[in-house]
Write a structure and sequence with these properties.
Layout lengths: L1 E6 L6 H11 L3 H9 L6 E10 L2 E10 L4 H5 L5 H10 L4 H22 L14 H17 L3 E4 L2 E5 L1 E4 L2 E4 L3 H9 L4 E7 L5 H10 L2 E2 L5 E10 L9 E9 L4 E12 L4 H13 L4 E8 L5 E9 L4 H11 L6 E9 L1 E9 L2 E10 L2 E6 L1 H11 L3 H13 L2
Helix pairs in contact: 1-6, 4-5, 5-6, 5-7, 5-8, 7-8, 9-10, 11-12
């Protein structure tokens, strides 16, 4: 299984995360060209090799071309404004879904602080062009790396106060503290004066992480380091390890949410399912059932990481007629997974390879198959057959 482990001994921010992904091998020009698809002309991207306390790393920065970007534009951007910028772009669906998920996390936390629905929150710093670039840039980088699992260490935060759009605030600032609380992210504070975990960084961690904890047993293929602008006695870096987990069997736990619904329309149920996937559900589906008095209904089942359970429960209550649900923890057995590229006459196709002891299964990526079939005007099965043939005749 292709796994990314994030070591957050000096916290996490949006620019540090993107810098780390570039240091892992994401092409800067690819990132730049993808971000240009947002249609924003308010920033210039830079990335340079540097070092922190003698450790080589990459510093990613977003330079605003309008001097007063924060002062004059942020108050007009709410969650819907940002979602429209993302939706109107030609970026692929995976990038759009993850970007909107991360912005949704920030909106929920800000809404809790100010007593507003997420869609009415005005973002201040996070609504500015540089933070849009950080969050969408993070989604672009992860899409490029095609990672199966992300594990993050407990976060490390500073102390004291910082000055921001809301005035002088304690560290962690309210938005960061709310994200850490709501998504049950483990963290510790230190005597270092200043902010180590930004709201954007906390939202990225909440939005992308499969689980929080120590580094698993894995064969590391690449190490990437992204740095912040501040200098401390310790290296101000976010370090990432990319490789394959070496355990024979993938065992973990997953939260299972269930509720029976007998008075919602099919359109409402379909809309809810879409929102659940966008919010990070690992899987979600409906099963026809009969309730008491033989009423036909649907059983909604949602699988998710425990850090995401509360958010998904709220979505279900908000977008269906459900007034109660059951939540349990379930053991999950997962075949080990890795990704390989297969060269065909239709181009390169990514294949997911799943193994368990002496059992092997392969699954070509549907998006690659569909794109190749469309470009070459052939049936999906023609592309699929060649991929399988090429893989087994390698």
């Amino acid at each position: 299984m292709k796994t990314l482990y994030l070591e957050c001994n000096s916290g996490i921010s949006g620019d540090m995360f993107v810098g780390t992904m570039l240091d892992l091998g994401v092409n800067f020009n690819t990132l730049k060209e993808s971000l240009e698809k947002l249609g924003l002309e308010d920033f210039i991207l830079t990335a340079e090799k540097t070092d922190k306390n003698g450790i080589p790393c990459t510093h990613f920065d977003v330079l605003l071309t309008h001097k007063h970007e924060h002062e004059h534009h942020h108050e007009h951007r709410n969650l819907r404004d940002i979602e429209q910028i993302i939706d109107k772009s030609p970026l692929n669906d995976n990038i759009k879904i993850l970007s909107k998920k991360i912005f949704g996390i920030v909106a929920v936390s800000e809404g809790m602080i100010h007593g507003l629905p997420p869609e009415q929150v005005h973002f201040h710093e996070v609504g500015a062009a540089d933070s849009i670039a950080d969050i969408v840039g993070a989604a672009i980088c992860l899409d490029e790396l095609n990672i199966d699992k992300i594990i993050c260490s407990p976060l490390t935060e500073g102390s004291g106060t910082i000055k921001c759009a809301h005035g002088i605030l304690p560290v962690p600032v309210p938005a960061t503290a709310e994200i850490l609380r709501f998504f049950k992210i483990p963290y510790k504070t230190t005597t270092i004066k200043g902010e180590l975990v930004t709201p954007t960084g906390a939202a990225i961690a909440a939005g992308i992480t499969t689980t929080f904890g120590s580094m698993p047993e894995m064969i590391v293929e690449k190490i990437g380091c992204g740095c912040g602008t501040k200098n401390f006695e310790h290296p101000n870096i976010l370090r990432a390890f990319l490789g394959e987990e070496t355990g024979l069997i993938g065992n973990d736990t997953v939260d299972v949410i269930e509720t029976c619904i007998d008075d919602s329309t099919g359109e409402a149920l379909g809309h809810c399912l879409k929102l659940l996937f966008e919010a990070g559900a690992a899987d979600a589906y409906y099963t026809p059932v009969f309730m008491k008095k033989n009423r036909p209904a649907y059983l909604l089942t949602v699988l998710c990481d425990s850090s995401n359970t509360k958010q998904l429960e709220k979505l279900i209550f908000l977008h269906t007629s459900s007034i109660g649900m059951r939540v349990r923890v379930s053991q999950r057995l997962i075949m080990q997974r890795r990704t390989q590229t297969v060269a065909t006459s239709f181009g390169e196709i990514k294949v997911k390879i799943c193994t368990f002891e002496n059992v092997e299964k392969i699954k070509p990526e549907y998006e690659d198959i569909a794109q190749a079939a469309e470009i070459h005007s052939v049936p999906l099965n023609d592309v699929l057959s060649e991929v399988i043939k090429k893989y087994y005749n390698k």
